[in-house]
Design goal:
- With about 325 residues, the protein is an alpha+beta fold.
- The protein folds into 2 domains: about 5-160 and about 305-320, Probable inorganic polyphosphate/atp-NAD kinase, domain 1 (Rossmann fold); about 165-300, Tumour Suppressor Smad4, CATH 2.60.200.
- The chain is built from 9 helices and 17 strands.
- The strands form 4 sheets. The chain has a 6-stranded antiparallel beta sheet with strand order 12-11-10-9-14-15. Strands 3-2-1-4-5 form a 5-stranded parallel beta sheet, with helices on both faces.
- Strand 7 and strand 8 (about 170-175) form a beta hairpin.
- The two termini are about 25 Å apart.
Length: about 325
């Protein structure tokens, strides 16, 4: 396994329209610099010698190198300021790193997952919808990443294979890591889904009533653990039940549900569109469709490998990785 660590920090995460339509927290890029700086310091202290970093227009990784103590290599790539940057950075660094630490929300990690192949992700939450990433200090994330990079732990011991939803429109595919929702809104627009009345069908890979976002709807009906081999399919509309769910920060809204069922990986649901609409992937409208097109959503176990950082650090301590004498 490579002894380097990758870092992809999305400068756009935590800044979308939900700071206006809801009371979402603003995560500024100076905060992200501080997180990356703490990652660097932990990696250096434990002996990791090389880090590959995605460049960005703000210079998150570059600004954090002032006290890095580790050799930081910025990827030589053109940046567009879009999700394609994260995907391309993951594709370039994946063969050369033991894991990729991400700073972003569900959307950032979805982009990274498209390019990371089987390289484990260690996702730090700095977005709006933060179901997939974790709330963890950069120091601890760096410690865990060092454990994998230095061979103190193995990916088999400390990683799990996440689920994903493969979304196809007339054969063209994309994926969601947490939830995929078919909506009646014909345009992508500002992307964020803050009005649940436009959602007609929802599939989730995990569901908890304490989640923020569309997966909270499923969580109010039938909680599904992130490592549990199940998902949930939900039809919204004419009401069998009406629930309150936190679909955005500070926004508990009533949602009418027609039916729901727990489903296993391999479950596939297809529709023939009768009107134009969009599909929201991990809370943001990304895919458009037209009348007559076939839409299919399938629950799979084809998501990225994800690290368990707290398990990793505990194993490192058991193996005396932090013992100085």
């Amino acid at each position: 396994m490579p002894d380097a660590v990758g870092i992809i920090a999305n400068p756009q995460s935590g800044k979308d329209t939900r700071r206006i339509t809801a009371d979402a927290t603003v995560i500024n890029n100076h905060d992200k610099v501080g997180i990356v700086r703490r990652v660097f310091r932990a990696l250096a202290r434990l002996g990791v010698e090389r880090v590959l970093v995605m460049p960005d227009e703000f210079g998150i990784g570059l600004r954090a190198t002032d006290t890095a103590g580790v050799a930081v290599e910025m990827l030589a790539m053109e940046i567009e300021g879009t999700a394609r940057d994260s995907e391309e950075a993951a594709r370039r660094m994946a063969p050369d790193v033991s894991c990729i630490i991400t700073l972003g929300g569900d959307g950032t990690n979805r982009a990274v997952a498209r390019g990371s192949a089987d390289t484990p992700l260690l996702p730090i939450s700095t977005g709006t919808n933060n179901v997939f990433p974790m709330t963890i200090d950069g120091t601890v994330a760096g410690m865990a990443a060092a454990g994998l990079a230095l061979g103190i732990v193995s990916a088999t011991e400390v990683c799990w294979r996440s689920k994903a939803i493969v979304v196809a429109v007339d054969g063209s595919t994309d994926l969601a890591l947490v939830d995929a929702a078919i909506t009646t809104e014909a345009f992508v627009g500002a992307k964020a889904v803050w009005d649940p009345s436009i959602v007609t069908f929802l599939m989730v890979t995990q569901a908890a009533p304490s989640n923020i976002g569309l997966s909270s709807v499923a969580g109010m009906l039938a909680p599904i653990g992130r490592e549990e081999p199940l998902g949930l399919a939900v039809e919204l509309g004419a009401s069998l039940a009406t629930i309150l769910a936190p679909i955005a920060p500070g926004r508990l809204q009533p949602i009418s549900v027609r039916r729901w069922e727990r489903v296993a990986p391999g479950y596939r649901r297809c529709f023939r569109a009768t009107r134009a609409g969009t599909i929201a992937l991990d809370g943001e409208r990304e895919v458009t469709f037209l009348p007559g097109q076939e839409i299919c959503l399938e629950l799979t176990t084809a998501g990225p490998l994800v690290m368990r950082p707290y398990v990793t650090v505990a194993l490192m301590a058991e193996r005396a990785a932090f013992r100085l004498r």
